[in-house]
Structures are given as structure tokens and as C-alpha cells.
Amino acid sequence: MKLLAQTNRIYFIFSLVLYLLTAFAIYQIVRLLIYDEVESRLKVEKRDFEAYIRTHNNWSSIPYFVENKIEVTRAEPTTQVKEVFSDTLILNRYDNELIPFRQLTFYESIDGVIHRVAIRKSLIQSYRLIEAVSLTMVLFLGVLLLGMFWFQGKLSERIWRPFYNTLARIKQFDLSHNASLNLEQPTINEFRELNQVLQKMADKMQHDYRNLKEFTENASHEMQTPLALINAKVEQLIQSEKLTNQQTHWIDGIYQASRRMSRLNQGLLLLAKIENRQFADVQPVDLTDELIQRLMDVEEILLHKHIKTTIELEAPFQTLLPPLLAESLLNNLVSNAIRHNQSGGCIQVRSSAHQLQLSNTGLELQTDPETLFKRFKKESGEHESVGLGLAIVKLICDTYQLSVTYQYEAGMHTLTLEKVHQV
After folding, report:
1. Span of the secretion signal (predicted)?
2. Which end of the chain is less congested by CB atoms within 10 angstroms, N or C?
3. Among the CATH numbers 3.30.565.10, 3.20.20.140, 3.30.428.10, 3.30.300.30, which is that of 283-419?
4. pTM for the full model?
């Protein structure tokens, strides 16, 4: 939920509760004022009744209207004398409807006999007044609430506009492009300071990115040249007939170390390029077909190690990847499946639209599987491996909305690629 929507919702709920409490309080105040007025009139009529009794010492029924009625009945001599206000309903003899009345009940001695006297005052007009006041109050408060809510939304939208403009520009900002971030300088101090900090950070990130990109490009070209030269010279020395066995052994060690250094350099440079997103040519790739092709390319190695290959193809596994990274991803997976396999073992490929699995036989891991995708973590002690293959696989998957998981069951190591569903 957006910040403005959340803020407006909280403001609306708070205002609604406050207005309802205010409306209830006003309704009670109006009701009490009207009741006080009616009760005051009833007390006046009580005094008139008492004055009439003192003058005549008797009471006779007289015609009355619905709006004003006095009822006098004999009471028990032991009845306690007290004055009570209460609400009651009386049937209107004209339209046969119950009408609300406010009633004052008290006891009066008439001709030496205690009588119960009930004086009633119609509340129909008072209720209509309360309804009119309440309806008007609710209407005006509702209009005020909606007006304040609308005004709050417009005001917040205008105040927060620089923030959303900054957010939109940051979303479009790409380190791989040379364009600067170029944020606005709004009039609100907090947003202006935020933009200044973000501008400095973006400029620093671009500067560091360019330096790192230049370093990786230079290292990719400059370091490979002397390594290739060393390998060529060492190969020439190995072919020389004048070397002793010990010298040949030493030169072979140099040659293997040089080759390992070359692979290590290539792996680290590839990791740096992936992290810097220097591969922009993303396109649809059928990883299932590419994986099968890689297995066909190493068929001689598989025959030499007596490794059988089985393929269960339900549907092709397609995703978006730069072709070079797709090739690197599959090469590392296949190389890992062969290197950690065993003679007479097998490699299994299972493919569906949402999942691609590559399994190989092998001994159970001696290290923690959680460290399998970390850099320079090797299960075997082979000198050929530099410990970057699965780290490269993991980084490619994390960068291009794929997940890779490892599982060992029944003597089979399984690496599974799946598509990550973005929210």
C-alpha cells in the first residue's frame, strides 16, 4: 500500500471516530436541553395544579388535548410521596398511533385523601426537533469529513510530489548508462536534503562503477596476454628433449599452476561483470536444448568414464538470459556433474516448463551443503577446480530471476533451476 493511501486511511478512520463521538455528544446535549425545557414546563403545571387544589380542595376531570394531559387517581395511604420524571407512550385517539410523552408523577392530598397525579407533556415536536437537528448535524459533519478527506488527499499529493518524482527517477536510473541522475531541488527542506544526498550517492556509485568496469576490462585483456605467453613458453620447454625428469616435473607444475591462474582470473572477471550487470543482451534461451547440446559435446568424456545419460523431457525450460551467461551456466553445471561423478555412474536430466534438474551419481558431501555455492568452496581436492563454478551459477541465477537448489538423495546429487515469480 502506498504511503499516501495508508496516511489517508488512518486520517479518515480517526476523523470518522472523532466525528461520530462529536455527533453523539451533540445529540445528547440537545436531548438534555429539550428534556430540561419540557420538565420545567411540567413543574410549572404542577405548581398550577397545586394552587388549584389549595383553592378548591377538589379536582374534577375536564376536557384535555393529547399534548397536555393530567391524570389523577386515588393512592394507598402508605404510598411514599416522591416526584418522578419518566417517558411513556400514549395512544393518539385520532390517528391510532403511539405518541411519546414526558411524564411527571407526584402525590397530592385532595380533600384529605392521597392521590397520584401524573402530568404529561407531548414530546412529538421535541423529537422532530431532535431528528431535524441530528440529521442536519450528520449531514454537515459528513460533508465536512468528506471535504477534509479530499483536501487532505490533494494536499498530501502536492506536498509529496517531489518525493515521488525522485522515486521515479531513481527507478529509471541505470549505472550502465552514462546519464547522470539529475534530481530536482524542491522547496521543501527535507526533500531537498534527501535529493542532495541521493545525488552524491549516485555520482559516487557511477564513478566507482566506471572505475571497476575499466579495471575488469583492462584485467580481462592485459592479464590474459602474459598468462597465455607463459603457457606457450612452458609448453615449448616441456617438449624440449634436453630436460631432465626433475626439470620436466617442475615445468609441468608451473604449467598447471599457470593454467589454474588463467581459469581463476577468467572466473573472477566473469563474477565481477555479472555483478556489474555488464551483460545487457538478454534474450529468450531454451536451457533444456542447450544443456542437451552440452552433453553431446562431452560425449567422448562420458564414454571414457562410462557415464550413462538419461533425459526426461516433459517441456522445454525457457528463460531470459544473455547467451554468454547461459553458456557459462550450463558449462559449469555439466562440468560439475562430470567432475564429481564416478566411473560407471549416470547423469539424469529432467525438464519441465517451470523446472530444470541435472542429477549425477556420486559420494555424499563431506562439507556443509549450505557452503556449496560460496566462492572457493571445493568438495574434491582436484587441482583442476578453482572453486568458482557453482558460485558463478548461483550469481547468474540470482541476477536473472532464477533459483538454484541442491539436494542429495539415494546416491544422486541434484541441482534444480526454477523460475522466480516476482511479486
Report:
1. none
2. C
3. 3.30.565.10
4. 0.51
